[in-house]
């Protein structure tokens, strides 16, 4: 499976995919790692293992829409079958997303539909939730609102801070993302409701 990853920061979820792929447990090929942040550590992680990278700063384009169009045109050239958003901290223009429907997924650190957007760990603690987690979902025009694919759950303990909770969840995110990409690579996950494979054929 040809995979492109978009990441804005640290890139630990990208690293989990790289590690699984290199261990031989995830049959994918990284065709591109792209970032909106020129100094994103994710780009260094990709370079370290010879994955092609693209650093494209938003201010290189006159408008948000022009930026998204440029970014996704460059991604299209790499010809991925799947795009993974792994800590990509931008809202993407629905017009450029549309052709990728069912072929672009995001990992979000909450049990969606709870807590779309930012500060999910603090919000879960402040709400007194007993459970927290992460969701991998298809990306649609609605922020963190596309059909969920899979979730990982963890308990929230008394005394948890957002930082402690985030760190505990991160290990589960890595497992979750690798598992979902493996299922997609195996052709075993369909776009919610429509039952199509990534190549568009019926399941
Ligand atoms: C993760 O918590 C992910 O769920 C969220 O941003 C964070 C990215 O971490 N969307 P990393 O860059 O993969 O280390």
From TrEMBL:
Entry's EC annotation: 2.1.2.2
The Formyl transferase N-terminal domain, residue ranges: 2-181
Active site, renumbered: 108
Signal peptide (residue range): none
Catalytic activity from the UniProt record: N(1)-(5-phospho-beta-D-ribosyl)glycinamide + (6R)-10-formyltetrahydrofolate = N(2)-formyl-N(1)-(5-phospho-beta-D-ribosyl)glycinamide + (6S)-5,6,7,8-tetrahydrofolate + H(+)
Alphabetical list of InterPro entries matching this protein: Formyl_transf_N (IPR002376), Formyl_transf_N_sf (IPR036477), GART (IPR004607), GART_AS (IPR001555)
GO cellular component: cytosol
Any one Pfam family match given in the protein's UniProt record, by short name: Formyl_trans_N
First-tier enzyme category under EC: transferase
Sections of the chain in a coiled coil: none
Keywords of this entry: Purine biosynthesis, Transferase
Record has Glycoprotein as a keyword: no
PANTHER family: PHOSPHORIBOSYLGLYCINAMIDE FORMYLTRANSFERASE
Name the record gives this protein: Phosphoribosylglycinamide formyltransferase
Native organism: Dokdonella fugitiva
Gene name of the record: purN
């Amino acid at each position: 499976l040809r995979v492109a990853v978009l990441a804005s920061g640290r890139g630990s979820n990208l690293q989990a995919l790289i590690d699984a792929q290199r261990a031989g447990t995830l049959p994918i090929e990284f065709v591109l790692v792209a970032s909106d942040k020129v100094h994103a550590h994710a780009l260094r992680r990709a370079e370290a293992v010879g994955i092609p990278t693209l650093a494209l700063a938003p201010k290189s384009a006159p408008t948000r829409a022009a930026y998204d169009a440029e970014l996704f045109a460059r991604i299209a050239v790499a010809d991925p079958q799947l795009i993974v958003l792994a800590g990509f901290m931008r809202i993407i223009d629905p017009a450029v997303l549309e052709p990728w429907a069912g072929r672009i997924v995001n990992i979000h650190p909450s049990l969606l539909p709870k807590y779309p957007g930012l500060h999910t760990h603090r919000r879960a603690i402040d709400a007194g939730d007993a459970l927290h987690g992460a969701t991998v979902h298809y990306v649609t025009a609605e922020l963190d609102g596309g059909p969920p694919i899979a979730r990982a759950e963890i308990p929230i303990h008394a005394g948890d801070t957002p930082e402690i909770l985030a760190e505990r969840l991160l290990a589960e995110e890595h497992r979750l993302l690798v598992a979902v990409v493996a299922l997609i690579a195996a052709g075993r996950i369909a776009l919610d409701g429509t039952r199509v494979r990534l190549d568009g054929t019926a399941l």
